[in-house]
Design a protein that fits this description.
Largest sheet of chain A: 6 strands, mixed
Number of strands of chain A: 17
Number of helices of chain B: 14
Number of strands of chain B: 0
Order of helices and strands of chain B: HHHHHHHHHHHHHH
Number of helices of chain A: 8
Strand order of the largest sheet of chain A: 4-5-6-1-7-8
Strand content of chain A: 25-35%
Structural class of chain A: alpha+beta
Largest interface: A-B, 34 and 23 residues
Structural class of chain B: mainly alpha
Distance between the termini of chain B: 19 Å
Helix content of chain A: 25-40%
Radius of gyration of chain B: 23 Å
Helix content of chain B: 55-70%
Order of helices and strands of chain A: EHEEEHHHEHEHEEHHEEEEEEEEE
Strand content of chain B: under 5%
Oligomer: heterodimer
Largest sheet of chain B: none
């Protein structure tokens, strides 16, 4: 099974540029890009055996859905019967059969998105490139289309490189995630590896929602000493300045825990999100209990020790 | 966003528009109605709002006095070639300036634009010398390539360039991924989407060539080679005075193709499809 790789990072981190380099739409000044073992540095996009889905879909407005999907095959010299068969096959998979004679302007956002995918799969390329394909859809449709793209990947088994700034999208769609920041790859790994063992505070803060809490302080034999609070530590750590990271969902409500003063309670139904101060640090906790506490009340919480992340204060490197 | 006018404001707006319309409509009405009146009625005081009797004989007289059909054809084919030629040159040049990266592109475009500042009258004498040398005086040649590569085409290139700049670059990138080269992208993607801009070019190029007056006077001397504006000056009596009703009948017929081109081309303006394949 081919991999689905997701490039994720904040706006301007270079993820789309990297995708466009793979596509051949940007020239590279150094290094090597190879697809299926073939170096493609000098090849035009059309010769790279890739298909791309653009953020704004880039459907040809003056062509019908069928023509949009057949266009690349026509220019590659396929026979009419073969093209019709491929278009029919792709339309079947994506449920586009009734829309084939329509023009893009007559389609909804989700339908356009599907046509853009149809245009990509019809060619049976070696790699699919998706450039933030869901960012123009509303939240509900985004979830539906996310499932469809994942289903498509599983069905076709073609290597997929997918760009998004949405870490939830990245987590759900990827076999492997590349987290990027300011033009650099911060970490590459399986989604849960990135969640469980982020390499640095950037990855730790980017992956997971709500974002991880960070508390600056010192590692000491007695625990992690921060302003107004001493946090428990897993055993076997050196001493020194560090950053203590704990995800909101890794706090537990325990009667003998650390006292925290409630600032804000947000009941979400399945969970309760609590903004609270721990010593002098403002942190967020997510609890499955239905907590009813007024702002100013004290609750007792404890971080799960096996879910504590420690980073060097100077270099940001992971310590545990 | 649409703002709804109150009925009173709407009436006032329409009345103002009607008043503003008068200086545009009145000369045309005068031309058309006078073409079906005898001369005595044209100059009657007070003039009739509507002709008392319709006399279409001036329309047939137009063809008796001059080879008007041939002159009509001359104007038609010259204007058609100039319009199509300008559309081809301007769309290709505009696309190149908008999309192809080449050294000094913007500086070259500025130099091209400066061409607009040179009045055509300034180049008339040198052009006459040139065409005389080439043996092209009293032919239609001077009326075709000069506008296609001259000031009207510069303006047309500007319109096309601005349009192509606004065309989403992703459409062309998608076409590159789909396997198209530069010219095919221009021909199958950019140009079909440029219909509104091409219509704009046609709307001002066709009348520009159709109404060209000074150049035919300078370059053409025989009646069978005249274009219509030049021919219109020839409907005169033995004393050199204009034969008003015949001249206005010829003028009315002269105006019709421009009107048709405008009606056909302006439809293309209304909704350009260029951005409808994008987003949700």
């Amino acid at each position: 099974m081919a991999n689905s790789v997701v490039l994720v990072g904040p706006s301007g981190c270079g993820k789309s540029t990297l995708l466009r380099m793979i596509a051949g739409l940007e020239t590279i000044t150094g290094g090597e890009i190879s697809i299926g073992g073939r170096v493609v540095n000098e090849l035009e996009p059309k010769d790279r055996d890739i298909a791309m889905v653009f953020q704004n879909y880039a459907l040809y407005p003056h062509m019908t859905v069928a023509k949009n999907m057949a266009f690349s095959l026509e220019h590659r010299g396929g026979s009419k019967a073969e093209i019709a068969e491929r278009v029919g096959w792709a339309a079947d998979i994506l449920g586009l059969k009734p829309l084939l004679e329509r023009f893009p302007r007559q389609l909804s956002g989700g339908q356009r998105q599907r046509v853009a995918m149809g245009r990509a799969i019809v060619r049976n390329p070696q790699v699919f490139l998706f450039d933030e394909p869901l960012s123009n859809l509303d939240a509900k449709l985004r979830v539906v289309m996310r499932g469809e793209i994942k289903g498509l990947h599983q069905r076709l088994g073609v290597t997929t490189v997918y760009v998004t700034h949405d870490q939830v999208e990245a987590m759900t769609m990827a076999d492997k995630i590349v987290v990027m920041n300011a033009g650099r790859v911060e970490q590459f790994g399986a989604p849960l590896d990135l969640y469980d063992r982020p390499a640095n505070p950037f990855v730790a803060g980017f992956i997971g929602s709500p974002a991880m809490n960070f508390i600056e302080g010192q590692l000491t034999p007695n625990g992690f000493v921060a302003k107004g609070v001493v946090l428990p530590l897993p055993p076997g750590l050196a001493t020194g300045d560090a950053v203590y990271g704990i995800r909101p969902e890794h706090f537990e409500l325990v009667s003998d825990g650390l006292p925290a003063i409630v600032q804000l309670v947000e009941p979400m139904g399945s969970e309760t999100r609590v903004t609270m101060t721990l010593g002098e640090h403002r942190v967020i906790g997510v609890f499955h209990e239905r907590l009813q506490a007024a702002p100013g009340a004290t609750i007792h919480v404890a971080p799960q020790l096996n879910a504590v992340h420690l980073f060097d204060a100077a270099s940001g490197k992971r310590l545990n | 966003m649409k703002t709804e006018l109150s009925p009173r404001a709407q009436t006032l707006a329409y009345l103002t528009l009607c008043v503003l319309l008068i200086p545009f409509v009145f000369p045309t009405r005068w031309m058309v109605t006078s073409s079906v009146k005898p001369v005595s009625q044209i100059f009657a005081f007070l003039p009739d709002i509507w002709p008392r009797a319709f006399d279409f004989s001036s329309y047939s007289d137009v063809f008796k006095i001059q080879p008007f059909a041939l002159q009509y054809w001359n104007s038609a084919y010259i204007a058609a070639i100039v319009t199509v030629g300008t559309m081809i040159v301007a769309s290709m040049a505009g696309y190149a300036f908008a999309r192809i990266k080449f050294p000094f592109a913007n500086a070259i475009f500025m130099v091209v634009l400066v061409g607009l500042l040179i009045p055509s009258e300034v180049t008339l004498v040198p052009l006459f010398q040139l065409f005389l040398k080439w043996g092209m005086i009293n032919t239609h040649w001077p009326l075709i390539p000069v506008p296609i590569f001259g000031a009207p085409a510069v303006f047309a290139t500007f319109i096309m360039r601005q349009f192509f700049i606004s065309l989403p670059v992703e459409l062309e990138e998608a076409a590159r991924v789909d396997g198209l080269g530069r010219f095919k992208i221009f021909w199958t993607i950019a140009l079909p989407l440029a219909r509104p801009a091409l219509a704009a070019v046609a709307i001002f190029t066709f009348p520009g060539s159709w109404n060209l007056y000074l150049e035919p006077i300078v370059f053409i001397s025989s009646a069978d080679k005249f274009t219509l504006p030049r021919a219109l000056t020839q409907f005169t009596d033995a004393y050199g005075g204009p034969m008003w009703n015949i001249q206005l009948a010829a003028a009315t017929m002269t105006a019709i193709p421009v009107l048709i081109v405008f009606i056909v081309a302006q439809k293309q303006f209304v909704e350009g499809p260029a951005h409808t394949g994008l987003k949700g």
